[in-house]
Amino acid sequence: MPYLLLAQVGVGAAVGGANVLASLPLTLLSYAASLPLIAVTGLFGLVRPLSVTAVRVLTGVRGDLLADGPARSWGARWRASAWWTLHLGVGAVVSGVSLAVPPLGVVLVAMPFSGALRASVWGAGLAGETDPYVAPLIGVALLTALAAVCAGAGALLARLAPVLLGPTAADRLAAAEERAADLAVRNRLARELHDAVGHALSAVTLQAGAARRVLDSDPEFVREALAAIEETTRRTVGELDAVLGLLRDGDPARADAMPAPTLAGDLDGLLARTRAGGTALTAEQDPGPAGDWSQLPAITSREAYRIVQEGLSNALRHGDGPVSLLIRVHAPDGHRELEITMTNPPAQDPPAPEAGPRRTTGGRGLRGAAERAALLGGRVEAGPHGGRWRLRAVLPLGAAAQVPGGGR
């Protein structure tokens, strides 16, 4: 109606101020002039989500056949404009006949039964056209035709809606990228849960078992083990709350803001808590020319910490003997790398009955470590090496020229 009224003003001015509403040809001309106005406004990006919402409510078209969000390309805008023009154009016709036909049809149906209607202006006009007793048939036919027109218009719009409002190739690509990004973040959250909780359970189990065995003979060790258990569980509960909070909020994109331990922030604490469980652990740290783990990129420091944590968890669950850890920054072939090497003797004998069965994760931890390294363009190797079990991870850091002092 707003488009039609605006067009009527323009047409009326163009024909010298004639009353457009009193002339059917001028009304039809105003209708035709309103269609280009509708098409132009249909190019606005927000027209598509408005139209999609109307289609879903009114026509029952499946949601997956329609695009979500504003139009991203001119092709999508033109298609949305075509739908907008078709929808309002057909709607104007249906509205017009819906206003005119029902009163006329009711009058025609009731005319044989009312002398007042036959004597009225409408009755007098129709009397010369047809027998008043045939009027009810014409009235029923008009009402039936109106229902058919409305149903046909709805079916036509429902059929064309997926064609004109369906997702374009750009929309499908954007949706696929969004799903991939969401899946990647959720996989990262799953790795965080696995590594944090799995390591904590392994460490706490060993610390509690070691404390129980020396409860009477070495109270000082028991106090250290209990303190390590308290610190491990407190940190893990904090990480667990952060991850579950992100999942509850339904916004995994905020995962980058989640605090996570790093080499600079907690490597020494991780090693101390591992030793508190009675594990013999020797560690050699060489941050390279920078001399400080805080000089590493944040994502590298975070993923490297998780790889070290998983390596320690793997050694605690499956190893039987002292663990040796080497973590260093070096520059082979002029390219800086962060190398993590961890070795320990594999378990040779089955666990004692009092110790219970060893835990296993079915390899998910090492697979997660490999995924973390691949995220940074690095690699992880794990397996027997020289009679011991070795885990070696190499994470590229860039050219050595970027390191203060350069070189190895």
Automatic annotation (TrEMBL):
Protein name from the UniProt record: histidine kinase
Domain Signal transduction histidine kinase subgroup 3 dimerisation and phosphoacceptor residues, every copy: 186-250
Substrates-to-products reaction catalysed: ATP + protein L-histidine = ADP + protein N-phospho-L-histidine
Transmembrane segments: 82-113, 133-158
Organism: Streptomyces racemochromogenes
Enzyme Commission code: 2.7.13.3
Cross-referenced Pfam families: HisKA_3 (PF07730)
Disordered: annotated segments: 342-368
Keywords: ATP-binding, Kinase, Membrane, Nucleotide-binding, Phosphoprotein, Transferase, Transmembrane, Transmembrane helix, Two-component regulatory system
